C-alpha cells in the first residue's frame, strides 16, 4: 500500500489530502521525508491540545513512532498494525509511504487502536461469544510482539543477556529465564517468541503460576471436560491447548505446587496431555519458556522443587542481572521512560546522582514507576535530589541507602582523598572500591558482598578503573 502525491500536494494545506485525513475516524499525521510533522488531523489536534502548534514542523515526539516512520522512509514499504508505544499506551498504527514517482517523500501515520491493553481488558470482561474469545487471543498475540530492542541497555551486562537470548531463540529447547522481579523477564521471553515465530501471529500464552490457586491450576493448564468437577458445565480448552504451535510462558514457575510439578514434568517429557476428566490425548506442540525470581537450584536442595523438572526446563538458562548491577543503563532508561510518559520535568544533577546511588530493589519496573510519578507530580519543574531521597525512603520501606553510600564516601584514606575537580561518581566509586579491597586484604569475594554486587561485576569495575589487586 502506498500513496502517490507530489511534494507540492503534501506541503499545501487546506487541500484534498487534509480533508481526507480529517475525515478519518482515527488520529493521523503526515510526515515529510525529513521526519517533520506537516499536518495533524482534527482527531490528532484534539489529542494534542493545547500544544498542537508546537508539534507541527517538528520531529515526532514518540520514540517508537519516529523509529517506525524512519523505517518506512528508508524501505518504502508500508507497515500495517505496528505495535507502537505512545505516551505510555500500546497502540496499533499503520505507516503508509507517500511517493513522488519512485521516491519516498513522506509517510501517512494513522492509529488504528489507541490502547490495546484497555481494549483487551474490555473484551475479557464483556466477551461471551466465540468471536469475543478469538479477539481476546488475537490481542494477546499482538501484545506479545516484544523485540530484543525493547530490553533497553547499552552496557556489557545488557548486551550479554540479549546475545544469549538471540542464540537461544535459534533453538527449540526449553528456556529458563532467572531474574529479580521487575528486571524484564517477560520482555525477553516475548522477544524470544517473536524471533522464533519470525513475528508471525502465533499464540503467546502466559500462565502466572502465582496468581492461579493450586486447586485450579491443573484445569487451567490442561483444560477439562464437561462434568469433570462441580461447576464444569461445559468442556474448556486449557492453556497448553490454546498455545497450539506458539509459546507457553510459565511465569514464576518457582511458585508452582510440587504435586503439580510431577504432572508438568510428565507432559514435557512425553509431549502430550489430557484434559481433566478426559482420556483423549492432545499433543504438546508449543515451545516452553519459564521464568522465576527464585533460586531453583537451592529449592531443589531443600526438596521444594523437583530437580528433574528443573533440568528439563533449564536446558538453556539465562540470568538477567538486576538494575543495581547495570547502573550504566540507568540514564538511558530514565530518558526512555521520560519520553514514553511525555515528561516535562527536568532532573537536577544531585537527582541524577541519586538515581545511580540507589540500589533499586524493584529494578526497571520501579524506575518506570518513579518517572511516571514525577511526570504527574512535578510538571514543568526541576526535581531535586531531596525529592528522590524522600521517594526512595518511602519506596524501600527502610532507611535510605543513598545516605549510607554518601557516608561511606566521606572518610577516605589519604591515598584515596579526591580533589574537588575529581569529585565525580566514577572517581568516588573507584576510591571506595580501593578502600574496601585494602580493608579486606584483597579478598574480592568478601568485598563484592560488602558492596552488594557479584564478584564478576567487581572484577569488571576493577578492570575499568585500572585497579590491581
Automatic annotation (TrEMBL):
<keyword id="KW-0547">Nucleotide-binding</keyword>
<keyword id="KW-0804">Transcription</keyword>
<dbReference type="Pfam" id="PF00158">
    <property type="entry name" value="Sigma54_activat"/>
</dbReference>
<dbReference type="InterPro" id="IPR002197">
    <property type="entry name" value="HTH_Fis"/>
</dbReference>
<dbReference type="InterPro" id="IPR003593">
    <property type="entry name" value="AAA+_ATPase"/>
</dbReference>
<dbReference type="Pfam" id="PF25601">
    <property type="entry name" value="AAA_lid_14"/>
</dbReference>
<dbReference type="Pfam" id="PF00989">
    <property type="entry name" value="PAS"/>
</dbReference>
<dbReference type="InterPro" id="IPR002078">
    <property type="entry name" value="Sigma_54_int"/>
</dbReference>
<dbReference type="InterPro" id="IPR025944">
    <property type="entry name" value="Sigma_54_int_dom_CS"/>
</dbReference>
<keyword id="KW-0067">ATP-binding</keyword>
<dbReference type="InterPro" id="IPR058031">
    <property type="entry name" value="AAA_lid_NorR"/>
</dbReference>
<protein>
    <submittedName>
        <fullName>Sigma 54-interacting transcriptional regulator</fullName>
    </submittedName>
</protein>
<feature type="domain" description="Sigma-54 factor interaction">
    <location>
        <begin position="151"/>
        <end position="376"/>
    </location>
</feature>
<dbReference type="InterPro" id="IPR027417">
    <property type="entry name" value="P-loop_NTPase"/>
</dbReference>
<dbReference type="Pfam" id="PF02954">
    <property type="entry name" value="HTH_8"/>
</dbReference>
<dbReference type="InterPro" id="IPR013767">
    <property type="entry name" value="PAS_fold"/>
</dbReference>
<dbReference type="InterPro" id="IPR009057">
    <property type="entry name" value="Homeodomain-like_sf"/>
</dbReference>
<keyword id="KW-0805">Transcription regulation</keyword>
